[in-house]
Design brief:
The protein is an alpha/beta fold and 447 residues long. It has helices spanning 3-19, 24-42, 54-69, 75-93, 102-121, 124-141, 148-169, 190-197, 205-214, 231-243, 258-272, 289-297, 351-359, 370-377, 398-404, 423-434, 438-443; strands spanning 176-184, 216-224, 246-252, 274-282, 286-287, 305-311, 341-350, 384-387, 411-412. The chain contains 17 helices and nine strands.
């Protein structure tokens, strides 16, 4: 029996003592005082009794029925005094009932905190998948019966985006690389890939050594066919097993989907390799890796870097012409030019810009031309546009003359062909006349 129970028992004893000792006026005062004490206790002013407990109700009954037994008041007056006392107590409490005791509050609070800790300890990728599945289900339920085909496409794209989100949500790799070079290629470009493997791209053990010692990753970048797992996809898998130099994206290949493919490349590369720079280059461009690395290393202490040969070409509104811009009206009147952006043959972005693309991939707009799309993603941001003409040298004799003068080019191609004209046949010639020696790459220090 605790102190509080002893206190209540003593009070009940005092009640009976007063009821059989004092006169009627004392009974009335005690009853009113008891009622007031309950109101004060409930308002926090005095540690008295509490409405809703059997012990306190017993005290009321004892007081009222004791008065009735003494003949002080009639039965009706006793009931009336009980109700009056209860209502008087409510005036001080402003509530009918106290639903939760202090101990219950503590238990509830503990349960809430435990639930919060449980939520915090959950794996992030699991929560991301759960939220993504809800988005998928919501998308399905909102589709009409006449939109089944469109709904399937939307579902496939959503699942694809979820996979990229889960890939990006994984713990970033601990190894720090200098740059990732992604060579944009297609199913029909096997001979182009072989021409690059035979010239400026290291192979086999040298490719792995380049990654380990220089922190440089080089991969051919390609999506998958519309019929996933078909003959084209299997041929790429076999080629990758042989060379180990292909990065396959969760993206459907197509010339008119270059903007989406480039976005998917930056997302996949940045989630797989933690590099300072991410380079995109076409498979008909010759690259001197050492000069490219030296060019990028000059800006390594800068943030939000966008490096390439900057240009501002005309917006072509005429249908049927090459590089037609369907959304030409967004760029003003006819004859206007695009904003400054790097030419699409080769350019590089820093780690923070790749992270920006990955985070905002679902809201970044895609224009018809890939280089315009990438440039538009950085409009309005505090980005350093660096125009470096060593990234857009011409083929011999231009690059050969510069190489002989000790000013080797980082990349060479023909503007008229948006790449090396007949690159399959001429890549070896360009490499022989403009390429650097192997030792230049191994002697260079980037990290």
């Amino acid at each position: 029996m605790g102190p509080l129970s002893e206190f209540r028992a003593a009070v009940v004893g005092i009640v009976f003592f007063f009821f059989y000792t004092y006169d009627n006026c004392m009974y009335f005062c005690f009853c009113g005082g008891t009622c007031a004490s309950i109101g004060w206790r409930e308002s926090g002013l005095w540690p008295g009794f509490r409405i809703g407990r059997p012990q306190d109700s017993l005290l009321f009954c004892c007081a009222c029925f004791a008065m009735k037994n003494r003949g002080v008041y009639s039965y009706k007056w006793t009931i009336f005094l009980c109700l009056s006392s209860f209502c008087g107590g409510m005036l001080f409490t402003n509530r009918m009932w106290i639903p939760i005791q202090v101990k219950d509050v503590a238990l509830a609070s503990t349960a809430v905190e435990a639930e919060r800790l449980k939520l915090v300890s959950e794996d992030f990728s699991a929560k991301l998948l759960h939220s993504g599945v809800k988005r998928v289900l919501k998308g399905i339920t909102t589709q009409g019966a006449d939109q089944v085909s469109h709904g399937n496409i939307t579902l496939n794209k959503t699942i694809s985006n979820l996979e990229m989100e889960l890939e990006a949500a994984k713990s970033p790799p601990t190894r720090k690389y200098f740059m990732v070079i992604g060579i944009n290629t297609a199913f029909s470009s096997r001979k182009r890939r072989d021409s690059i493997r035979a010239t400026w791209m290291p192979q086999g053990e040298e490719l792995r050594k380049l990654e380990e010692e220089k922190g440089i990753i080089i991969r051919f970048v390609i999506g998958h066919s519309a019929m996933l797992g078909g003959v084209l996809d299997k041929s790429i898998e076999a080629e990758d097993e042989k060379h180990g130099d292909i990065l396959t994206l969760n993206h459907v290949e197509g010339y008119h989907e270059l903007s989406a493919k480039t976005k998917a490349y930056f997302v996949a590369a940045s989630s797989r390799w933690n590099a300072q720079y991410y380079v995109k280059v076409d498979d008909d461009v010759h690259v001197n890796i050492a000069t490219l690395g030296e060019t990028l290393a000059k800006h390594r202490k800068k943030s939000r870097v966008y490096i390439g040969c900057m240009k501002s070409g005309p917006v072509l509104s005429q249908r049927g012409v090459r590089y037609h811009e369907p959304e030409y009206w967004k760029f003003g009147d006819n004859g206007n030019k695009y904003f400054r952006h790097a030419t699409g043959q080769i350019y590089a972005i820093s780690n923070d810009l790749a992270a920006y693309i990955s985070t905002n991939q679902h809201v970044l707009h895609k224009y018809a031309n890939e280089d315009v799309s990438v440039g538009s993603w950085f409009i309005g941001l505090n980005v350093r546009h660096i125009d470096d003409r060593r990234l857009c040298c011409g083929t011999p004799a231009d690059c050969a003359w510069k190489a002989n003068a000790g000013n080797a080019c980082a990349a060479s191609f023909d503007w008229s062909c948006s790449g090396i004209c007949r690159s399959i046949d001429r890549m070896k010639e360009v490499h022989r006349r403009c390429g650097q020696r192997r030792e230049a790459l191994w002697k260079a220090a980037f990290l």
